Give the backbone structure.
Amino acid sequence: MSKPESPAAPALDEAARLYQQLQRQFVEAGKNSRQETARGFTTPSPQSQSEWQAVLDTMTKMYAVVVHFSDGGAYDASDVTAHLDDALVGNTTVQQGATQESSSAEESAESDARDRGDAESGGEPSEEEQLKWFTRSLRNLKGLEDTSDEVCRHALELWRNAHRVGDRNLAFYEYPGRVGTMTLRLHQAAHGSAKVFEPVPQGSEVEWHQRVWEITSGKCVRYANFANPRVPLQQGDWVTKIDVVAQFLAAASAVHLGHEVEPTDNDHGGPWEFVIDAHDQDWPRPVRDALVGSAERPGYVRLAEAVDMSEAPEVTRLALQDQLVAGAYLPTPMARYLAKDRKLNLKLDWALVWIKGRHGQHLAKWSEIFRTGRKELRIRVARGEPGAAEAYAIAKNVYASYLGGMTRSTKHNMALLRPDHHDQYVALASANALRSLEKAAAHGYAPLCLLRDTAIFADPKQRIKNIEGMRFAPDPDTWRQEGVDVAVLAEEHSPGKWAVEDYCQATPEIVQAHTKGRTTQLKALVEAASREEVSA
């Protein structure tokens, strides 16, 4: 086996790819801006603004990749996705000027009014506009930069036919994140019973809005990452990497999210705030219901003291012990996992909870649209239909963009801005991952690490796939077998299950990365070595 590439290589390769993408975007945006100026435009059109925003986003991605990852793993406590989240959705440590905020708010309000109008009237972009936007979005994806015009046309047709809102095919709107917001708007317009929740804007004068932003920008325990260097690993041992299939999409299908009701003189209509005696475990009923009762409620609780993790399973302790300190905020799906599932003693001094009648599974129907679409396209990919793989790639990019960033984007999604929603489904996804890994550990399979939706084990993939209590999707070998029913496999390849993605024999570099607890580097090395195993 040849020596794996340097751990810095994937980051540098990605930066080079982004630079080439930036050049193409810059040329296209500049050409269109000059054409608009020649036609007498005094201000950039929404399309032109979107193109220049794409240039800015690519530059931001380059910054995140180069600054945080060109050293090949020094930043081992997190991964590139986390840094891109911070860079692209507006980390509050980077404050914008008041004029820029005002301008962004006005532009977002205009965009929202347009979206609402399109959703209610049934209007949609022309086929020419959709193809242009779809092609640009597809060619922005890694490995698809050179997709032909013909394949783009086929892919758009397949994508539209696979995604339906009511009795109409979904249109493609400008960029993947906006497709997500428009899908929600269209669903709300088509179903009068669908809840139209209000935004939680940054800088709002509403007190509970301010508390939500304080929480989500501070010590909010929503991710569960860990390294476990104590698990033995030697050169030549088999290593298997597994990922959660569409992790956020699965969580969004089930999570409860808050909404507001008409305010009264005695009630602002939002979540209720509770001050709690840290030494009194008789929590207020809404808090008790949210954490240990039968009713799941969205919200947050604050720890008065660090949590005693001595009785917690090892994977839970590794993932959360350093985060569960006094003053930390827990979204209720994470707190419920700790208090109800793990029976840990949480000493609380404050809570913010949406009570009965003010929450629901508001993204369940939205998620079903994309779950159905990805399943249909997965079947077409397996059958080898032209454009299917590209349509499937865009399908994943749409729901991942919306759930991964748009719900908390202060730049692109002011009208549906709900950082509290984002915190709830991310925390639920993390808690569900820990539940699965606890089952694996209970059967003698201790993971080397957990990194968001990825876990790595020092075991052959055949053994990992048979862990009792863990739900696995069909792996690539199964899809390639002759005579298999791809419709059945697509049904089984459902969001929330685990999938074996990479496996290889441990190299000296992999062993070293594991020993030093460098999870990002370990993941990159396993993926690189796995590619070599397949091509050998």
Observations:
- DSSP finds 20 helices and 13 strands in the chain.
